[in-house]
Automatic annotation (TrEMBL):
It comes from Eleusine coracana subsp. coracana. Residues 193-235 form the BTB domain. The gene is gb08083. Gene3D superfamilies: Apoptosis, Tumor Necrosis Factor Receptor Associated Protein 2, Chain A, Potassium Channel Kv1.1, Chain A. InterPro entries: BPM1-6 (IPR045005), BTB/POZ_dom (IPR000210), MATH/TRAF_dom (IPR002083), SKP1/BTB/POZ_sf (IPR011333), TRAF-like (IPR008974). Residues 27-155 form the MATH domain. Pathway: Protein modification; protein ubiquitination. PANTHER family: BTB/POZ AND MATH DOMAIN-CONTAINING PROTEIN 1, BTB_POZ DOMAIN CONTAINING PROTEIN. This is BTB domain-containing protein.
Length: 235
């Protein structure tokens, strides 16, 4: 038995839809000023931190945790730790790369203290550096002045998502022009003729638009300032 054959009938439509996979980076930064550094060491013992104010980036809220005496005890206790948190309550994780920098007094990153993380998924997790700055290095450097220094946090969100797109209209095959045939039919049938010529006593009906398009003399006569009425006779 032969297999059934399907065909596209004239009443069926061919519908085109379109979407896109979009990838890119969104980058911004936050400056965290530590004022009264020596006091933060007194008030915040090891594994204790102070949160920054929340800031908005990429449509989400973030904050930074500053640990003046490290997030861990033991061998890491001589370091300042810094961590970035994403506020909970988002519908999906955010992939981001973060760069932490100690700034000098001119506001420029100190080359020895520019540290970039890998790509992490921020959801309920937090990521950062438990050995960001050794306190002895900071306290002997020129990067702290009047008990104050600044940390810069650069965030690069990795965007990868699917988006809807408007489909371009399907191409249409335009049939060859048959304007000459239509004009010929007008001349034969005299349909829509609106001007009459008198030549040696014989009348000929014509279309003023066609005459004007073919002759500047007729154009001036039929559409110029001297025309008197819609229908007229020319001899």
């Amino acid at each position: 038995m032969a297999a059934p054959v399907s065909s596209l009938t004239a009443s069926e439509e061919c519908i085109t839809t379109r979407s896109a996979i979009v990838a890119g980076n969104l980058t911004g930064h936050h400056l965290l000023d530590i004022e009264g550094y020596s006091v933060t060491k007194e008030l915040l013992p090891c594994v204790n931190c102070m949160d920054s104010r929340r800031f908005k980036f990429g449509g989400r809220l973030w904050y930074i945790c500053y640990y003046p005496k490290s997030i861990f005890n033991g061998v890491h206790a001589d370091f300042i730790s810094i961590y970035l948190f994403l506020v909970e309550g988002i519908d999906k994780p955010v992939k981001a790369v973060v760069t932490y920098s100690l700034l000098d007094q001119a506001g420029k990153p100190v080359p020895s203290h520019i540290i970039t993380t890998g790509v992490y998924k921020y959801y309920t997790q937090y990521f950062g550096l438990h050995q960001f700055i050794k306190r002895e290095f900071l306290e002997k450097s020129d990067h702290i002045k009047n008990d104050r220094f600044t940390i810069r946090c650069d965030i690069t969100i990795k965007k990868l998502e699917a988006e809807e797109r408007t489909a371009l209209p399907a191409s249409v095959d335009v049939p060859p022009s048959d304007l000459h045939q239509h004009l010929g039919n007008l001349l034969v049938t005299k349909e829509g003729a609106d001007v009459t010529f008198q030549v040696t006593g014989e009348s000929f009906r014509a279309h003023r638009n066609i005459l004007a398009s073919r002759s500047p003399v007729f154009k001036a006569e039929l559409f110029g300032a001297m025309r008197e009425r819609a229908m007229r006779r020319l001899s």
